[in-house]
Write a structure and sequence with these properties.
Blueprint: H1 8-25, E1 29-33, H2 37-46, E2 52-56, H3 61-69, E3 75-77, H4 80-85, E4 94-98, H5 105-114, E5 119-122, H6 130-142, E6 146-149, H7 158-169, E7 176-181, H8 185-201, E8 207-215, E9 226-235, E10 239-245, E11 254-259, E12 262-266, E13 272-277, H9 279-284, E14 294-297, H10 309-318, H11 327-346, E15 350-351
Parallel strand pairs: 1-2, 1-4, 2-3, 4-5, 5-6, 7-10
Antiparallel strand pairs: 7-11, 8-9, 8-15, 9-10, 11-12, 12-13, 13-14
């Protein structure tokens, strides 16, 4: 959250221009690996940008879906091997999206790079182990692969708008974040809030402590875990993120972003609401320990991005510009998220950067 984010409107205009120019000049292939609920949405975005889209999924029914929902020139393959065999000579023209479950991201990434693919967008989490994620980041840098992760809020222009509103109306930048709810999972949903906290606070966390355990109730797959419990990440300057999720509740969750004299809430529908303390009360007694109720305000409105964040991410990958959200950034967020599971398993606080220990190579059943 540095100077590049100083002017939200200017940033959004720049993103819009990049997107328009990229689509106008694009003559490349969009390759989608994984066509579940998220993958199908990605496919609809890919056909807006690429003359041809290739969809890979083990489910043969996806072939019928491609025929019905995409275009005549778009193709379906059941395996990535068969899809890549037909594109060997044009691998440099491919921009790929990995939209499978987390445990498969590492081998799919390596298979794409082995085939000569140089532009890859991966769904979160980057990988299901810190070691695998580090290998992916290192290989991308070593072999000049433009590689990013699909955290949509990183490309929506949201955070600069939040910071401007906080400084203008809420007494200064955010100082704490609290997320809570039912069976959301500390990784599946929590990873989004961890990444948002890192973006808002402008740095990686210093440490994390967690009391948590998994249940095998993840709707994304019978072999995937849903982690319930309590986790707290500490940042410099006395700032914290805490997440609490229960696998015994089906109630939708909330996120609260606390500032010195007010807060910003993320409602279950994704809407942002701003709450402010009474200005007269603060003036009469500005001590931070004299806490007061915050009331909803109509001063704050989010400006939507010029296009879908995934389309912006693809345009960014296809350009020569610096990535707004690099794989190194994604590695920081993943390490922070999996660090909570390391803490829960070891019953100790985990300090960052996490560079050693038995959990670096552990493959977690998360997505």
């Amino acid at each position: 959250s540095g100077s590049a984010w100083a002017d939200p409107k200017s940033l959004l205009r720049k993103l819009s221009l990049v997107q328009i120019m990229s689509i106008k000049n694009s003559n490349e292939i969009g390759l989608l690996v994984g066509a579940g609920s998220m993958g199908k949405r990605h496919a609809k975005i890919l056909i807006q940008k690429y003359p041809q889209v290739i969809v890979v999924d083990r489910d043969l029914a996806i072939g019928d879906w491609v025929k019905l929902e995409l275009r005549d020139q778009d193709k379906y393959f059941q395996t990535l091997e068969s899809a890549l065999t037909g594109t060997t000579e044009s691998s440099s023209q491919i921009t790929a999206i990995i939209a499978t479950q987390g445990p498969s991201h590492f081998p799919i990434f390596n298979q794409l790079v082995d085939a000569g693919v140089k532009r890859i967008l991966c769904e979160k989490p980057l990988a299901n182990s810190i070691d695998h994620a580090q290998q992916m980041v290192d290989r991308a840098e070593r072999e000049n692969v433009r590689f990013s992760v699909g955290m949509q809020r990183r490309r929506s222009g949201l955070v600069p708008q939040l910071l401007v509103a906080a400084e203008k109306y809420l007494g200064g930048r955010p100082v704490g974040m609290v997320g809570h709810g039912g069976a959301h999972c500390l990784i599946t949903t929590g990873m989004h809030w961890i990444d948002l906290a890192i973006d808002i606070f402008g740095e990686a966390p210093v440490a994390v402590s967690a009391v948590a355990e998994p249940d095998m109730i993840n709707p994304r797959g019978k072999d995937l875990e849903m982690w319930a419990g309590v986790a707290g990440w500490s940042f410099s300057g006395g700032r914290y993120l805490s997440l609490t999720y229960s696998n015994l509740s089906s109630v939708e969750g909330m996120l609260h972003i606390y500032c010195p004299t007010g807060r910003l809430d993320v409602a279950p529908n994704g809407e942002f609401l701003m709450y402010q303390r009474n200005a007269d009360q603060i003036q009469n007694d500005p001590r931070i320990t004299r806490v007061g109720e915050a009331f909803i305000s109509t001063e704050f409105h989010i400006i939507d991005p010029p296009s879908h964040p995934t389309l912006l991410a693809l345009s960014e990958l296809d350009s020569n510009d610096k990535l707004l959200y690099s794989s190194k950034d994604a590695l920081i967020s993943l390490t922070a998220a999996l660090g909570a599971l390391c803490s829960a398993q070891s019953n100790t606080s985990v300090k960052f950067p996490l560079t050693e220990g038995k959990y670096l190579r552990k493959e977690w059943a998360v997505s």
